[in-house]
């Protein structure tokens, strides 16, 4: 079994299970939904998952390259903080809260990396146990069952953390401003910062902005309902498998 081909097939199989889980009628029948969380909102949420957390194999390669270039900064936010310390306006505006804002923004990007690691673990189990493509829902469930429940719980918590950040409108506004400032500063110094590093921040900003757009269409109460709904759907899926 060729690892890269297995990865491509598993990504496609897992994307299909995500798409099935986030069908409006299925969610409405199983969980009930307030009228204010309509079909269009659920469709946007499903597309958000498929575009940013579980993208196609080709798109994932591009995102991996961008986020890999930021890996050191994601692990050590203080390195990016040094760039911000040169900006008097940002320092004056956010002061001692700046490290928290930056850490939260980079934390949102960790969700994508968590999804990548999760899929790589599924690939390892598929190869080890000689489970071959096509990876339909039954095979994906079988592969998930080979992972530890604790590992999958951590992955769900990582996803939940992203949506908790998106739910905090004040924090999100600050995160977007700080990341945009970083992008601008890095573009001015391309001898130090690579295009991939800049691209990683741009994609991260896009991920946060698009997620924010979904939550912006909802009341505060429905935003909380949506975060809870996502968690319930993922945990129920896990309970069904185990």
C-alpha-based Rg, rounded: 19 Å
Which parts are unreliable, with pLDDT below 50 for 5 consecutive residues or more?
A: none
In DSSP terms (H or I, runs of 4 or more residues), the helix count works out at 13
Number of structural domains: 1
Mean pLDDT: 88
Largest sheet: none
Distance between the termini: 27 Å
Q: Using DSSP, what is the number of strands?
A: 0
Order of helices and strands: HHHHHHHHHHHHH
Strand content: under 5%
What structural class do you assign from the helix and strand content? Answer: mainly alpha
**Helix percent band:** over 70%
Shape: globular
Q: So what's the oligomer here?
A: single chain
Word description of this protein:
The chain is mostly helical and 242 residues long. The chain has one domain (3-241). The protein has helices at 3-21, 24-31, 39-53, 57-69, 71-75, 78-84, 88-94, 98-128, 137-146, 149-167, 169-187, 195-216, 220-241. The mean pLDDT is 88.
Which helices and strands, and how do they pair?
Blueprint: H1 3-21, H2 24-31, H3 39-53, H4 57-69, H5 71-75, H6 78-84, H7 88-94, H8 98-128, H9 137-146, H10 149-167, H11 169-187, H12 195-216, H13 220-241
Helix pairs in contact: 1-8, 3-12, 4-12, 8-10, 8-11, 8-12, 10-13, 11-12
């Amino acid at each position: 079994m060729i690892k890269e081909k297995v990865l491509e097939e598993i990504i496609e199989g897992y994307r299909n299970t995500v798409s099935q889980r986030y069908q409006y009628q299925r969610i409405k029948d199983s969980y009930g939904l307030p009228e204010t969380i309509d079909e269009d909102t659920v469709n946007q949420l499903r597309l958000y998952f498929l575009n940013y957390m579980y993208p196609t194999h080709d798109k994932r390669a591009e995102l991996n390259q961008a986020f890999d270039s930021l890996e050191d900064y994601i692990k050590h936010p203080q390195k990016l903080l040094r760039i911000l310390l040169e900006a008097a306006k940002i320092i004056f505006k956010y002061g001692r809260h700046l490290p928290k804002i930056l850490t939260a923004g980079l934390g949102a990007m960790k969700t994508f990396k968590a999804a990548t690691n999760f899929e790589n673990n599924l690939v390892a189990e598929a190869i080890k146990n000689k489970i071959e493509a096509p990876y339909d829902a039954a095979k994906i469930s079988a592969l998930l069952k080979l992972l530890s429940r604790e590992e999958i719980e951590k992955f769900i918590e990582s996803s939940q953390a992203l949506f908790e950040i998106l739910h905090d409108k004040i924090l999100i506004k600050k995160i977007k401003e700080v990341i945009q400032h970083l992008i601008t500063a890095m573009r001015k110094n391309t001898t130090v910062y690579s295009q991939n590093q800049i691209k990683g921040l741009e994609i991260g900003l896009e991920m946060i902005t698009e997620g924010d757009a979904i939550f912006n269409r909802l009341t505060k109460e429905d935003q909380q309902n949506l975060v809870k709904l996502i968690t319930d759907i993922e945990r129920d899926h896990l309970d069904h498998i185990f």
